Amino acid sequence: MKTLLLAVTGMSPQVITETLWAIHHEQGAWPAEIQLITTSEGGKRAIDGLLTQGHLQRLCHEIGRPLPLFDASRIHVVTGAEDLPVDDARSREDHEALADFIMSKVAELANDDALQIHASLAGGRKTMTYYFGYAMSLFGRDQDCLTHVLISEGYENLEDFYYPSANQAPVTSRDGRKLETAAAEVVLADIPFVRLSDSLSPDMRDLARSISFRQLVILLNMAAHPNQIRVELNVGEQTLTVFKRGRPDALTHIKLASKPTFALMWVLVQAHMDGDHSLQRRNLDSQGNEVPDRGMALMLLEKLYPMCGQTIPAGCVQLEAQVETLQDYAELNDANFLRTLQTLSGGVTSNWLTPQISNIRKALRNALPDPLAALLSPALMTMTSDGQLEDASKKDLNPSYRFRLSPDQFVINDI
């Protein structure tokens, strides 16, 4: 497995050679490549110190290690609020951009299962290291590690000190003392971190590259505060939009796979808002046998008509007749939709309903952290004696589909 040394740096590119020295002496995995996340000034200093002055090549030659791949293309300069390179992150807007940039880069690199990331927190401003460490918690995997390099007193942040070289002339400390470089102690401190990546689907990792760090953190935190969630169903776009109550900006838009899947979500949300407990996984007769649910099929068709740009003909109330009037549209536009219509013509059964529920849950899990996706997913629930909804247990004979959010947390935007 290839090892990448990924570091945030500021004005001290020395942290790279110091970290490499420590990796060598502590017999860690030697990186095949180095990448930096830094400011434009930090990038210039890295090129000058590590490449132009040759400290990186000199270190590798002295300790007998192969030179990792490193050049200007592997230095990622943060862009600010106006999409220009950041010289030094001092404004609030620059720090927001810094967080987004770091999260996106870590998410991108952690998407490669053949890559081991050795993340170094030794350089950069305090907020850079915070965002970097948090990004590693979000996306770091079992094979990844997080470290900080510790340097003995007097040698920190000296422009002329890059590693404890036996061949380098003494350096001058900040208080004017002459220090032998070989006498410096460099220790690699392993930093344990909580890995949350298992709660993020591959699609969620991709989403992290297009939304802000702030938005992602809000999504992750919202599951612990479900009363803050607001969900809008946008019928024209067939999407679910997630908001935090009190904030006008959308956190994410979720596209459902097909018209029937969205129509089912619409039906279930409408029933939840209306306090309707009739939508069950199986419609059973008095003998406990499943009977196709024609009422649910009519509810679905009522939603499918406007989604297809159609209106229910006057006096067309029978299930079979409504299916027939939509068949011409389906034959011209969507073969899968046509098959769904043929299925619905006999009424909804669990053989159709269960996979559709799974499609909804999958779409939500792909776009949201798992705990939040569970709150937005339809669930089999029952009413308690005090009028509260709770998840159904195995002893409940035929619970209905409802949601774990309160009805007033949903909004339906019709066409």
UniProtKB/TrEMBL annotation:
Domain CRISPR system ring nuclease SSO2081-like span(s) in chain numbering: 12-217
Protein origin, superkingdom: Bacteria
Alphabetical list of NCBIfam families matching this protein: cas_NE0113
Protein name stated in the entry: CRISPR-associated protein
Annotated source species: Halopseudomonas pachastrellae
